[in-house]
Specification:
Blueprint (H helix, E strand, L loop, with lengths): L6 E6 L3 H16 L5 H15 L5 E7 L2 E10 L20 E9 L8 H10 L6 E7 L3 H9 L3 E6 L8 E7 L4
Parallel strand pairs: 4-5
Antiparallel strand pairs: 1-2, 2-3, 3-4, 5-7, 6-7
Helix pairs in contact: 1-2
Amino acid sequence: MSAAGLEIRRFGHDDLPQIRQTIIDLHAAAAGPDRDDDFKKKFPWFVDHWGGNADFACVLAYDGDETVGFAYGAPAVPGREWWREHLDQAPEKAVTFSYSELAVSPNWRKKGVADLLSRALLEERDEDLAVLLVDVEHPRVQALYEDWGFRKVGERQPFPDSPVYAVMLAELPLR
């Protein structure tokens, strides 16, 4: 199995009702049984929050009828991007896409699916930058994003009960 044979399908805000449960179920499967149950319970709120954005973008990877991964996000609100508090001077071109979530089925990991999904989500974006958050306790995930051109610009804890995240920024298109 490799990512090469997968079909990538694109979805937007209006498609959320048809893909919402698929995203939630795949996220739970990808997180595994050891993942914090509170986060699993909160995840549907995040799907609805991001999916409620009129410019929400989502890509799903399929092996036949089986969904094996997804990635989604939406354009950031100008002036309220996650990276701004960490840079003394904003880049000249600063229109930003907030890359919110990526999940790959455990059976499909280490096969290039994360790369395929990330590139599919970001390749057609009109924004200048992409920003994302990575749990600082997952250095291998951070390294993966660094391989794609993201760089850590700071750390933040978006909610009092959330982990501390590395704020990672990349110029688009990805290298």
